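Hey team,

Sharing the Nickel pincer cofactor biosynthesis protein LarB run so nobody has to redo it. Sequence (225 residues) first:
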Amino acid sequence: MKNFEDLGFSKVDYDRERRTGYPEVIYGEGKTAEQIVHILLKLIEVHRKAMVTRLSEEKAAYIMTECPDAQYDKVSRILTYGATEKKYTGQVLVICAGTSDLPVAEEAVQTADWMGCETARLYDVGVAGIDRLLAYREDIVSASVLIVVAGMEGALASVVAGMVKRPVIAVPTSIGYGAHLEGLTTFLAMLSSCASGMSVVNIDNGFGAAYQAATILQLVSEGGQ
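Structure output:
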């Protein structure tokens, strides 16, 4: 079989799982439901699992008529078929500043779970009420990788990174008022953090943060090879 298949509107990358550990993931925005179904069924045929991100409820409803065994989560807007068996030691903890950030946080959780990670959630613990965060100090310091999702000024990520000796992946969200600039202020604040060792992904990119977390645990499970 070829490393990819040309469908005309898409070249489906069958070799990606061998190269990276995970199959190609379908980005749902900008594609028609029919196009997504075509790609999805090809990936399922080869990998026996598939995932679609940023998928509207309307498209998901159509896709599930063609692929009834798929599952759709409307908060994260992720559709999955099958999943990677749990294969990594350690835990990915997704920490969310506020309820408004939940769609991005859930995108991270759903992605990491599908990629074979053990996941846990710690939500609505923003720095405006920091006692809520500190009440879970034991859970925070025992996690293997931490994904911190926050909007506004993004301070939560710096606080968490100053508490732990594990990788922290910060996710700025587009939640905030005017000068927040739809997440740009948060993004720049996280990039400028005084907390050492923290990495930052793009605005609202819960998927990218989870993918990074999974590759970290993948490396650990392989003994650093």
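The chain has two domains: 4-81, 88-224.

Ping me if you want the raw files.
A.
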